[in-house]
Amino acid sequence: MIPVSHILILSATLFFIGMYGFVTRKNLITMLMSLELMLNSVNINFVAFNKYLYPGKLDGIFFTIFIIAVAAAEAAVAISIIINLYRTHKTIDVGAATELKH
Questions:
Q1: What is the pLDDT of residues 40-98, one digit of tens each?
Q2: Which domain holds residue 61?
Q3: Do 67 and 58 touch, CB atoms closer than 8 A?
Q4: What is the phi-psi region of residue 90: left when phi exceeds 0, alpha when psi lies from -120 to 50, beta otherwise?
Q5: Is 93 helix (H, G, I), strand (E, B) or coil?
Q6: The domain spanning residue 40 has which CATH number?
């Protein structure tokens, strides 16, 4: 059985990789992927804590399913915003889009 510390270290590593990608990148698609990586690391935490603290209950699994549904809706909305931004400004670079305000 895998110790909970290994799972938490993996989750923290994924979260900080996602945070680094979100803060340092200016491409909206890359920022969206980084945000999804952070949400998935939270899902790993929910499943790990559910398995080790409350093995008979499914509360962590339900939260994980809810987060997956919210992430899918968030991705759909974000991609539609990115497409609209590209149509108006002809770029998906955050820095260039703020400089091109009308």
A1: 999 999 999 998 888 888 888 888 999 999 999 999 999 998 898 888 888 888 777 66
A2: 4-99
A3: no
A4: left
A5: strand
A6: 1.10.287.3510
